[in-house]
Structure formats: C-alpha cells, structure tokens
Amino acid sequence: MELGIIGLGKMGGNMAERLRRAGHKVVGFDFSKDAVAKLTATGSIGVESLEDLVKSLAAPRAIWIMVPSGDPVDQTIAKLKPLMQKGDTFIDGGNSNYKDSQRRHDALKTEGFEFLDVGTSGGIWGITEGYSMMIGGDEAVVEHLRPIFATLAPGAEEGWGRVGPSGAGHFTKMVHNGIEYGLMQAYAEGFSILRAKTALGLDLTQIAEVWQKGSVVRSWLLDLTTDALRKNPNLDGLEAYVSDSGEGRWTVFEAIDLNVSAPVITESLLRRLRSREENNFTDRMLAVMRNEFGGHAVKTS
Q1: Active site includes 277?
Q2: How far apart are CA 256 and CA 236, in angstroms?
Q3: How many CB atoms lie within 10 A of CB 150?
Q4: Is it true that the peptide bond before 263 is cis, omega within 30 degrees of 0?
C-alpha cells in the first residue's frame, strides 16, 4: 500500500522506515533536506515539494501529517487541498486538540475529502516496538487503511483501533498523555523519597531493576527509567526543567468541563509548570508569610 508522510522527524522517519521494511511504498516530504536525503538513502522516496509528494502517489491517496499541532496542521492541509482529489485522505498523526480534528474532518468532508485523527504513541521506540494508535474517524476509511495501521502497530490486531468518530482518536491520546503525566510524577516522587533516605544507602538502580520483575508497579516506563538510572545514577548535569506539549493541560480542562475529579493529573501538570520557575516566587511568598506570623527564619541569597 502507498502512503505519503509529511514531517520526517524522529517519529515520522521511523514510521516511514517501519512501513518500507514491510513492503509498503512510502513517499516523504520535509523542509529539512537532510531528512529527505536520509529517507531516500533507506530506500523510500524523498521529495522536495508537496506537489511532488502528491504526484508520486496513486489516487485515492493517503497522506500522513506529522507536524506541530495548531496552525501548522491547517496550513499543511490548505496547501495540499488544491493538489489532491476527492476521495483522498488526510491523516493527522500529531498531538492536535480533538476539537480542531472535529472541525477539520467536517470541513474536509464537505469538500469530498476524508480525514482521520490518529493519536500515536511509541516515540523513538516505535520503529522496533510498534506504535500504539488511537484512531478517530469514519469506519470505512479506517478499514481501507488497515494495512498501514496493522504494519505500524505492535501487532496486526493489537495496539491499535478505531476508538470512535472524528476527534475520538486525539481525545483518547490526550487522556493517555494526561495519565502519563501522573505516572511519571509518581515514579519521580518515589525515587526521590528513596534517595532522600541516605541512612539506608539505597541503590536506586538496583531497586528499579527489582521492581521490573513481578512488581505491581512494573511497566515500560519503569524500564526506561531503569535504563536512565544505569547511565546516570545521580542525574548529573541535568536541570530540573520539565516541559509539556499541551495534552496534559487539555486533559485537565476537559476534566473540569466534565466535572470529573482528576487531582493526580492536575497536580502533575502544576509540578511541571513549577519546575520552570527559577527562584520560585510562590515559595518565597510562603517563606515570608511564615516569617511574619511565626518569626520563622528566612534564607536570603
């Protein structure tokens, strides 16, 4: 089967390679000439324009868009539409807001195009482990592209599925990432407590390895954490700065709108925001208040 991919970063490039190895025709475009050259060197077809991308695919085409969420997705679709034909399919495999995906689906549908939102998880490991894909959109379109999803997934019938209508894929991926925030925060806090108990001389790497087998907290995330601890047990040279790409925020907003209590996900998001504050003003305010009402000592720089 044929697939066009726009955006040949680590994830897009790895997806292209996984498909190529399975015998699918992949045509890729990226503004980075190095990324295009790398794709071509591996045996797929790298092109230097969207026009060439569309021309290299037989109708009905399917083009997978892997660009940052928001306006870049809209701009990419706007540039592609004049080049494509009715019946062609746009696939947004990035981390778009599900409301944007619903809007795009409805607008494209009226013009005769198809649109799928595919929440994709797997990161840089997907090329070997496969990608977990949560797909939203019309069932017939998903079935038509089944060979693509079956190849990218961990197994032909596992690790992927149509989870609902338009928007459902990105909504599910949004919640998935919110859960990820909470899991990461729990692991981070737990290892911090272990490290703080200096009297016991605990070896964090050894403990992580023990937990990997048989423990109820074992997970792939723990496996990756263990690997990181083996390489750098004291996390030397790292700053306590944690970014977020948006999905955690959206999950918290949806929880509020739906009257669903989600304190763990919410607090994990707030901790990420706090990690970026140098000389945290909130904590300084707490210190000065304690000094005012109780005469507690205040540290000064």
Answers
A1: no
A2: 38
A3: 17
A4: no
> Mind listing the pLDDT tens digit for each residue in 20-66?
999 999 999 999 999 999 999 999 999 999 999 999 999 999 999 99
Single-letter amino acid code for the residue at 40: T
The Cα 184–Cα 213 span in angstroms is 19
- Asked whether the beta carbons of 137 and 165 are under 8 A apart, the reply is yes
Distances (CA, A) of 152 to 129, 130, 134: 9, 6, 12
Q: Which helix (H) or strand (E) holds 221?
A: helix 220-231
Is 10 one of the catalytic residues? Answer: no
DSSP 241-293: -----SHHHHHHHHHHHTT---HHHHHHHHHHHHHT-TT-HHHHHHHHHHHHH
- The token duo for 182 is 């909470």
From 180, 209, 254, 267, the catalytic residue: 180
User: φ and ψ at 295, to 5 degrees?
Assistant: 70, 20
Please pick, among 2, 38, 114, 173, the residue that the annotation labels catalytic.
173
DSSP-derived letter for residue 166 is T
Instruction: Evaluate if pTM is beyond 0.85.
Output: yes
